[in-house]
Amino acid sequence: MDRTHDDKLPIRMLHDRVLVRQDTSEGERRSGGGILIPATAAVGRRLAWAQVVAVGQNVRTVEAGDRVLYDPEDRAEVEVRGVAYVLMRERDLHAVAADRFEGSQDSTGLYL
Predict the structure, then answer these.
(1) How many CB atoms lie within 10 A of CB 83?
(2) Largest CB tally within 10 Å, which of 12, 18, 39, 47?
(3) Family, per the entry (predicted)?
């Protein structure tokens, strides 16, 4: 069964594929200590957050609406109706941040 977050999306994911929309926080950011880090600053390999938009029928650990952590260097971009998405396999996801995990009342909601 194909599960999509946006019913108007004219695409159906197959097998273990996950379609995500990148978080738009690619500009300036602040460190934990409050230091402003410009967007042009060189950083080592940095993982990025995205929101799951659609999943294939064989995806078992995430569902539409989850926030996931992935490596932006290993991605395939696709544009659907003028919106850029990232297409990847479920195994390329590093973590899921969701409130829906059972027994997570005292946990952070971060599933690694």
Answers:
(1) 11
(2) 18
(3) Belongs to the GroES chaperonin family.
Beta strands in 36-75 (DSSP E): 36-37, 48-55, 67-70
pLDDT digits (tens, 9 = 90+) for 16-40: 899 999 876 555 566 667 777 666 6
Residues 82 and 62: their CA atoms lie apart, in Å, by 25
Give the pTM: 0.66
Whole-number Å distance between alpha carbons of 99 and 102: 8
Q: Taking the CB of residue 77, how many other CB atoms lie within 10 A of it?
A: 10
Phi, psi of 6 (to 5 degrees): -115, 105
Cβ count within 10 A of residue 78: 12
Tokens 């880090």 map to which residue? 37
